[in-house]
Specification:
The protein is of the alpha+beta class and about 290 residues long. The protein is built from 7 helices and 19 strands. The N and C termini lie far apart (about 45 Å).
Length: about 290
């Protein structure tokens, strides 16, 4: 099942090129009171809501996928987790390009660990990426996004995939520099998750998926998730050894080689096989340019 959020928070199921509006199913979510939980209630309840969504589809209002504005498929992730230097060829290009490494020793994901991106950075492809710092390099990084579906802590690798709700295409945008990754990658609009979440029953093996990205029609990144240093299960095992993972948490699994800069006005297209693809615009001006 392909589950999306669109047009300002409506809930949809994507089937045969159409978005079926099943927003009424949200009324079945359990009522919450302050303090609100640090998780996504829809993702947590997905198993119980799957059948109501299917029942709602025949009578639902339908929209062509190219006529809606897609929000991020997860509304309230408690954590967005990044996996640095998780493709061997990206490690090689990071060592060779001083504009990526900025003097840091490029070793391995096991040495660097994971990092967190701010939830306020999250957008869907219906919005625009708004770059900052016109004197610095702002790079694209296409990744497989993993959405956690159930609580897990210190989970064994063999059990890790049972805690996944689904997969989406992710962009881990970054401004290059000497600061820590969590700082440089948490800028508003620098975490893109789109266009929908594909549930795990449609993805036989998340470690065998082609992924790609182009800018203004020029192919920049092409690889396959089988080249990840830490595969999806290992990333979940690794993350859950430090954090309790909650429903709706997002793991951005790392980017392959071919990262490069984007400029205001660019058009980015990104995709992951069996998951989806999307187009997103980079805003025509840097953030704050209208106040200059």
């Amino acid at each position: 099942m392909k589950i999306c959020r669109f047009n300002g928070g409506r809930l949809g199921v994507v089937h045969e090129g159409l978005v079926h509006d099943v927003t009424s199913v949200l009324d079945l979510l359990p009522a919450q009171r302050y303090p609100l939980p640090q998780k996504d209630l829809l993702i947590e309840s997905l198993a119980q809501l799957r059948e109501p969504m299917l029942r709602a589809m025949p009578g639902a209002q339908r929209h062509a996928v190219d006529t809606v504005s897609f929000d991020a498929p997860v509304a309230n992730p408690g954590k967005i987790i990044g996996a640095p230097i998780n493709y061997q060829e990206h490690i090689a290009e990071s060592k060779a390009d001083a504009g990526i490494g900025h003097g840091r020793a490029i070793t391995s994901i096991g040495d660097w660990g994971l990092f967190l991106k701010a939830g306020s950075a999250l957008i869907g492809c219906g919005q625009q990426i708004v770059l900052r710092f016109d004197t610095r390099r702002n790079d694209h990084e296409v990744e497989l996004g993993v959405v956690i579906g159930s609580v897990c802590r210190q989970v064994a690798r063999a059990d890790a995939l049972s805690h996944v709700a689904g997969y989406a295409v992710a962009l881990d945008m970054t401004v290059r520099g000497t600061e820590f990754q969590s700082f440089r990658k948490s800028i508003d609009t620098y975490a893109v998750l789109a266009p929908w979440m594909v549930t795990t029953d449609e993805i036989a093996d998340p470690d065998q998926l082609d992924l790609w990205l182009s800018v203004n029609g020029q192919m920049r990144q092409q690889s396959n998730t089988r080249h990840m240093v830490y595969d999806v299960a290992r990333l979940i095992e690794y993350a859950s050894s430090f954090y309790t993972l909650q429903p709706g948490d997002i793991i951005m699994t790392g980017t392959p080689q071919g990262v490069g800069p984007v400029q205001p006005g660019d058009t980015i297209r990104a995709g992951v096989a069996q998951v989806g693809e999307f187009e997103i615009r980079v805003a025509a001006q840097y953030a704050g340019a209208d106040r200059a």
